[in-house]
Amino acid sequence: MSAPIRTTCAYCGVGCGISATPTGPRAVTIAGDAAHPANGGKLCSKGTHLGETVGLEGRLLHPMIGEKRASWDKALDLVAKRFRETIAKHGPDSVAFYVSGQLLTEDYYVANKLMKGFIGSANIDTNSRLCMSSAVAGHMRAFGEDVVPASYGDLDEADLIVLVGSNTAWCHPVVYQRIQAARAARGTKLVVIDPRRTESCEGADLHLPLKPGSDVALMNGLLAWMDQAGQLDADFLRDSVAAPDGFWDAIRAGHDLWTTAKACDLPPTELQQFYEMFAATPRTVTLFSQGINQSIRGTDQVNAIINVHLATGRIGKPGAAPFSITGQPNAMGGREVGGLATTLAAHMDFGPDNVARVGRFWAAPNVASKPGLKAVDLFRAIDEGRIKALWVMATNPAVSMPDAGRVREALAACPFVVVSDVMATTDTTVHAHVRLPAAAWGEKDGTVTNSDRTISRQRALLPLPGEAKPDWWIVTQVARRMGWRNAFAYDRPADIWREHARLTAYQNDGARLLNLRAQATIGNEAYEAMEPFRWGGTPFADGRFPTPDGKARLVPVTQMALQGPLRDWPMTLNTGRYRDQWHTMTRTGLSPKLARHREEPLVELHPQDASALEIADGDLARVATAQGESLFRARISEGQRRGEVFTPIHWTDQQSSGGRTGLLPRPLVDPHSGQPGFKSTPVRVEKVKTEWRGFLILRGAEPVRVPCLWATRIAVPGGALYEVAGNGDPARLEACLPKGDRVEAIDQTRGTRRVAIIREGKLAGVLIVTRSGLLPTRDWLIGQLAVEGVGASVLAARGPGSQLDKGAVVCVCFDIGLNQIVAAIRDQQLVDVPAIGKAIGAGTNCGSCRPALANILTQTSQETLHAAE
Fold first, then answer.
1. Cα–Cα distance between 368 and 115 in angstroms, integer?
2. How far is CA 405 from CA 413, 427, 670, 676, in A?
3. From edge to edge, which strands make up the β-sheet containing 68-69?
């Protein structure tokens, strides 16, 4: 067995350390790295099951020109030639790169250098624009530099943690566990500010379900309360903070408790409770994420939070900071090298001195002198024909961008599209003229930076398969073919890292906190052995900020008028992540374990809204906006506010006939950051009637297109499960079944058809549909994919004896379902989450399901109490 390799997780910005042990050609065992400061050995469900995602299913293994396999030389020559010709004919701004927080810092660096330094355009933007660019803009306005003034250690020392627009229990589970550990150790209070009641609210001291988009009013009201209560830090304001004329007059007018409560649609008593908790707790961390950033006023919302921390001196001290937590593993690394169109490089903007400085360092005579197009504008420019050559790296904008239907049209019309990706077929690669096979997570070598500025090494666990290559190598080869061989003479990631570190230090007289001078001369062996480290120490501990006068800025922000219900679009759409899925599921969609938590894309509605729409739990529903529409399975949830619905971002055409959330949001953006407002699109929901429903189980990994209204593919051990529903004759689904010996059973009364295909004694496929009958559970049939000697009795869809339907899977690590958990709570009279773990194991591995277990325990106890009454 190989020795464990220390690397970092592929998913969110927590940046957890992993100890991975290769166990075969494409197999690894995964454990948390106990020595890593971000997670101390803990992993969430996604990180725990990374080993299920390192196979070669669906991989792009060779360069492709159109649908034909090509050599690397031919593909790279074509890319360089088409980009050179486009620039020569239409100018540097006629080309663009769209990159990703999935890239390593070294990949990001060379892509940014090629575009901004040598092509001479700043038309390189990143999918991080969609998740945290409002935080960047807010930091720049307040601090003068994009610096996150917090670390995870602050969570351990805080007495109050405020989660704003962050379902941390699902999106950053290891951080949530750290919060819960602080609560147990020191009694830290927890307040959750979110329109939805999510699992992050379980056990919180207070949940404020504010009206979407009213965060500025809430935070301005808090600042006014602190001012009136004499809780401002006068010394810090005098010495370290600058306020523009009229700032305090504006805060003191119209931000009283009652006015704020009305604006936020909150009970004044609950709002006052939060304000009093904040005032009484100097050690406060306000942790915010997409609920703040993904808004057309996201930057103002960020600055409203920062204003409160600056004015009360809750910054630069242990346990006191505003804390933006990012969504991608290397979103921060991209920010550091200049991967956003609005920054140049190494935390420098496009000021003339910076342009000249970077030009000298790169020996580049044609450095971009102004910001480029942000993501939404970039794809609009493609649609309008202004951008004629596009290179997409490690992302899937045909799914993830707002108004994704228009993005698809733009990609289809673009004269030349290059996609570097690990997957052969995505919603974006189908539009590519050239596809370049890139290294996947387990094959990459370089560095990443997490949400609290900790830089870690990502190390390759597996050899590169087929002809796949690292992204930095691909970009470097194209740059050399475009004529800049000497400027891109890198042999290894360490060469790029050293250059990046030198640039952060170059003529940096302390104006920028990002300074990696100590890394500029690091040797190759030291690079290989690099331990995680956090740059910047404790920012602003000395009360000085990277602004011309050394003071932070209070930024005047006002609450925008919120839109009421529209005649044709009377509800409001909120979008977000599921606990066990990631982005567009090109990785997590391969994992049978991760598929079990939420098998289908759901639209969540409040019970009263569902009743008015005559939608029952489990129905299909059409969700429509002015941009597009898609189908979802309906789930009735008390956690939704009336008039609002929630859909997940993950599903694509590769996994489902519906669930395409990207088609729905408006392409409206924050005026400062350019970040789209994914959280508040006017929407209409209506029931979709179907005549039959059922499921299809197939052996093997090869996907099929199921000819029906609703079909969602779910990875299972040994194959795939498709949940299906539709109208007309369901017999047409039998075309999806493989060849083999056929057995079938038909119940004319209930309109039920059961068909199984057996080949060489093994179950090759099964289709069960019904018009009015009950469907069997899927688990037993899925298990038969691994059984030898299957016979006609397989159509019973159950083994001998009585078997409990375990229900929806809650604990993916041990495959424990809702019904099993409820039964254990009732039968064994379990009273807390540790007791559930001791009894049946749920929640004892990664811990991601513990908030759900707490919720189930509460509901079960209440139901038992009501039954006793």
1. 8
2. 13, 11, 21, 15
3. 68-69, 64-65, 434-437, 416-421, 389-393, 95-99, 124-126
Strand partners, 206: 191
Phi and psi (nearest 5°) for 7? Answer: -145, -165
pLDDT tens-digit series, residues 229-259: 999 999 999 999 999 999 999 999 999 999 9
At residue 154, the 3 state secondary structure works out as helix
Task: Quick: pLDDT tens for 797-828.
Answer: 887 765 667 888 899 888 898 899 999 999 89
510: left (phi over 0), alpha (psi -120 to 50) or beta: left
What count of other Cβ atoms lies within 10 Å of the Cβ of residue 2?
11
Distance from C-alpha of 75 to C-alpha of 156, rounded to nearest angstrom? 51
Cα-Cα-Cα-Cα torsion 579, 584, 587, 588, nearest 10 degrees, comes to 30
Q: How far apart are CA 588 and CA 579, in angstroms?
A: 11
Q: Which two tokens stand for residue 221?
A: 């009201």
| Residue 303 token pair | 């600055």
> In DSSP terms, which residues pair with 193 in a beta bridge?
164, 208
User: What is residue 285's three-state secondary structure?
Assistant: strand
Helices (H), 59-132: 72-90, 105-112
Q: Which amino acid, one-letter code, is at 536? A: G
Q: Give me the helices (H) in 120-195, please.
A: 133-143, 152-157, 168-171, 173-186
For residue 156, what are the contacts with CB-CB under 8 A and spacing of at least 6?
178, 181, 182, 185, 319
The DSSP result for 485-553, as a single string, is TGGG--SSHHHHHHHHHHHHHTT-SSS-S---GGGTT--HHHHHTPPPEETTSSTTTTS--SSTTS-EE
CB 418 within 8 A of CB 390: yes
Residue 421 — φ and ψ, nearest 5°? -155, 165
Q: How many other CB atoms sit within 10 Å of the CB of residue 525? A: 8
| Residue 339: CB atoms within 10 Å | 31
Q: Are 21 and 51 in contact (CB under 8 A)?
A: no
Question: How do residues 84-125 score in pLDDT, each as one tens digit?
Answer: 999 999 999 999 999 999 999 999 999 999 999 999 999 999
Strands 752-759 and 762-770: antiparallel
The DSSP result for 248-263, as a single string, is HHHHHSS-SHHHHHHH
Q: Which two tokens stand for residue 52?
A: 């299920």
Cα–Cα distance, 382 to 260 (Å, whole number): 42
Q: Is the dihedral of CA 348, 354, 358, 359 positive or negative?
A: positive
The candidate with the shortest Cα–Cα distance to 719, out of 595, 592, 808, is 592
Confidence of residue 626 (pLDDT cuts 50, 70, 90): very high
**204: its two tokens:** 């919180």
d(CA 625, CA 571): 10
Strand partners, 756: 743, 766
Q: How far apart are the first and last CA of the chain?
A: 59
Q: What is the pLDDT of residue 859?
A: 85
Strand 189-193 vs strand 206-208: parallel, antiparallel, or unpaired? Answer: parallel
Q: Which residue has the tokens 């997670």?
A: 39
- Which helix (H) or strand (E) covers residue 647, if one does? strand 644-648
Number of C-beta neighbours around residue 823 at 10 A = 16
DSSP at 748: T
CA 524, CA 788: separation in Å to the nearest integer? 52
Q: Token digits for 400?
A: 């993830």
Q: Dmax of the chain from CA atoms?
A: 83
Closest C-alpha to 446, from 10, 32, 25, 51: 10
Rg of the chain (C-alpha set): 27
Rounded Cα gap, residues 745 and 236, in angstroms: 78
